[in-house]
Amino acid sequence: MNLGLPPARTRPRLLLIDDDPGALRELVAILQGDFDVQHALDGRSGLHRAQALRPDLILLDVVMPGTDGHAVCRLLKADASTRDIPVIFLTSVQAVEERLQGFALGAVDYVGKPFAATEVRARVFVHLRLSGRVAASDPALTPAEGAEPATSVQVHAAMRYIAEHLAVLPTVSQIAQSVGTHEVRLLALFRQQLGLTVSGYIAEERVRTGCRLLVETQMSVQEIANEVGYSSPGNFISAFKERMGVTPKAWRESDHSGHATLPSESRGLG
């Protein structure tokens, strides 16, 4: 007998709220293989969609005109129907003060711009499980063909640790110890779940961070090189050009609007 109820979801539902259509396209391309992805282009409509859809997780841009991400998060947490939905903020700002403000409002995590597909999926998978909104064995969390599998909590924690210590990075053994495992195990997890060695991931993270600093700050190339852990600006320039196809100076002079992606991470909707 049909009771007029909507069909049961076969995949976790995500709501993306960002006023930048380009950023939304990137996120949809990254996530649509594994999730039912919905989106909104401003804070107010995002809030209304969250109340109507009751998604399993929300990815929410911080800086938006009108009702910004902090206001939306505050309203979500004040509503009994949405207060338990995990919120991950999207931001190109790395200031500790902003992150602390977001956590105080009830956000569970941050995803930085420019986006890294593996990191976005890792954080989403982890918080869906940690929130108990989906079980670890839920078939809805089986990645689509060709997508990276769910990243473990240890890899997720290691990724954050690396991002926070790029300037003076500890050894792989020390990174492993910081997340409660040993070097051989961490190396195997990175290869299995990210398709990268730890050193390969660090190299990509250094270039990603360099991209962001070039666009968002007035730091010199030498200062950025030091900030992301290169011993000389020449080494940074060589690594950057090899990965991005242009020099840091050319990248800075281009219009990336604060959310450029690495070539391997950039995807369109067709």
From TrEMBL:
Pfam families: HTH_18, Response_reg. Keywords: DNA-binding, Phosphoprotein, Transcription, Transcription regulation, Two-component regulatory system. Transmembrane segments: none annotated. Residues 156-254 form the HTH araC/xylS-type domain. Residues 248-258 have a biased composition (Basic and acidic residues). The modification 4-aspartylphosphate is found at D61. The keyword Transcription applies. The keyword Transcription applies. Residues 13-128 form the Response regulatory domain. Residues 248-270 are annotated as: Disordered. It comes from the Bacteria. This is Response regulator. It comes from Pelomonas parva.
